[in-house]
Structures are given as structure tokens and as C-alpha cells.
Task: structure prediction
Amino acid sequence: MITTLRNLHISTAELIWNKSNNTLMLSITQVAQTYKARSFHVCNILADSSFECIRNWLSEIGIALNITSRNEHLPEVERYIRTIKEQTRAITNTLPFKKYPPRLIAEMVYNVVFWMNSFPHKDGVHMTIRPRTLGNRASHQLQQTL
Result:
């Protein structure tokens, strides 16, 4: 599961083993806690129809779910997923293996997301501060105001 904050271009990747309600909810809760640790509150989620089954659970924790219509996609997320796939393929081409265990593929994806968050996005809110640092600064500024 790939998540991204639209304007800040901070992203996360979560490995999910199945698409059961409990697994999806646990994964979204972990992502929300990750963003909360950086002083961002998740209040809206744009997703495809596979997340419709957890709409009620999300509303209980204060998150509104907006589902795309059939055959419609979120262009920012689709482009981001394509970029992650390209970068992961680039890594696999440098490795001497013919087959890759699922855990290695997941770690390659985590690595790609880490490095994509480490450099400023051209459409981001700041030209020189990387997305990972923006979250830390927002958290630090919030602690100073309290």
C-alpha cells in the first residue's frame, strides 16, 4: 500500500499480506500514526474501491473516505507507483539474482520510498528542504509554540 500527502509529497509504503478488513485498517492506522508523529493529522483519504469495506471503521476514528469511481484512478498516486516500480527495477538490475524473495522486493520498495522522501520535490512546498525534514520541522515548531 502506497500513501502520499498531496502538497508535501511525503510518502509511505506498507506491506500488506492480504486485503482483509483488519489488515487494511491496521495498515491505515500505522500510516496515520506515522504522519501524526510528524504533526500531520489524517482527516481525508482518497482511495480506490477496495477500501470501501472499511469506511465505517475509518469514520469512527475521524477519517473521511473518498472513493474513486470505477475505472478512475488518482493520477498522483498512479504516477508515484510507476516511479517506485521503475526505481525498484533499476535496483534489481544491479543485483546478481534471478529470483527475489517477497521480503527483498518489499525492502527494495522501502528503500526507494526512503530516498524519494530524501530529496525535495519540484512541486513541493519548499525548493531546498526535503519532505522528511518538513515533517520534522513542523513537529519542532509545534512543540515550540506549546
